[in-house]
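Whiteboard transcription, Tuesday session. T.W. wrote the C-alpha cells on the left side:
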C-alpha cells in the first residue's frame, strides 16, 4: 500500500476523532469519506482520482486549521497531518508524470 493510499484510509478516523470540531466540518468529513470510499472501492486509485482525493482532504484540513474552537495541540497535530498529505500529493503527482496513461489499457484474460 502506498503512503497516499494509507493516508486515504487513515484520515477519516483521525479527523473525525477530534472532539471539538463543528457539525459542519463533521459533515464535510463524512461526505469526503463516502466519496473517497467509492473511489477506493472502484479500484481506480491512480492518476487524477488519487490526487483529487488528497486535495479534498487538504481542503478539510484547511477548514480545521481555521476553526477557532480547536486547541493549540490539536492544531499542531493537524499541521503535521497537512504536511503528510501534501507530501503524498506531491509524490503522487511526480510519479504520475512518469506514466503514459494513454498506454494503460485493460488486458483481456485468455
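and on the right, the sequence the group agreed on:
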Amino acid at each position: 500500500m502506498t503512503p497516499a493510499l494509507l493516508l486515504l484510509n487513515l484520515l477519516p478516523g483521525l479527523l473525525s476523532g477530534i472532539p471539538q470540531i463543528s457539525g459542519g466540518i463533521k459533515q464535510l468529513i463524512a461526505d469526503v469519506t463516502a466519496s473517497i470510499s467509492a473511489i477506493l472501492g472502484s479500484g481506480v486509485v491512480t492518476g487524477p482520482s488519487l490526487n483529487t482525493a488528497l486535495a479534498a482532504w487538504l481542503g478539510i484540513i484547511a477548514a480545521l486549521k481555521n476553526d477557532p474552537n480547536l486547541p493549540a495541540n490539536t492544531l499542531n497535530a493537524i499541521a503535521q497531518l497537512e504536511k503528510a498529505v501534501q507530501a503524498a500529493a506531491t509524490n503522487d503527482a511526480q510519479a504520475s508524470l512518469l506514466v503514459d496513461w494513454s498506454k494503460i489499457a485493460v488486458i483481456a484474460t485468455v
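Someone added at the bottom: The mean pLDDT is 81.
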